[in-house]
Amino acid sequence: MKSWVFILLACSTLLEWSTAMIIPEEGPDNECSKPPDEGESCSGGNPGTKWYFNATTNACSTFEYMGCGGNNNRFPESEICKESCDPPTYSYEEYLKQLEQSNKKPKGKGRGRKGKGKKKGRQAKGKQRKETENPEKSQD
Known about the structure:
Residues 32-85 form the BPTI/Kunitz inhibitor domain. This is BPTI/Kunitz inhibitor domain-containing protein. This protein has helices at 2-22, 78-85, 92-103, 112-133, 135-139; strands at 40-41, 48-54, 59-65, 67-68. By secondary structure, the chain is of the alpha+beta class. The chain has a domain at 32-91: Pancreatic trypsin inhibitor Kunitz domain (Factor Xa Inhibitor). It starts with a helix and ends with a helix.
């Protein structure tokens, strides 16, 4: 009974966390919701074609940047725009599947009882060596 309560509580918590991660912020603080700002021309700036996230179409598009100023809805590459403003989202089932896969532990050296037993065996051999190296101490 306790395990079912724990599982239910864990699932509801994970669902709440995953939902919170998927919903983007809206409003003036979210740079990705701002329209592209071409900035202004200046010496030493970096003018050229840049990428911005179009919140209406939920896609990244290009615009011509003048070189200085503007807002932070400006990216040098399409991939960076997508990663920053349109991260991949997963269904709850996909999320659980990925969670299960990440929790699977690979079997290898040092795992389980065998690893612990070997360690004890090595310690015992070390003690035997010390006794044979110092026969005077072992006779006391």
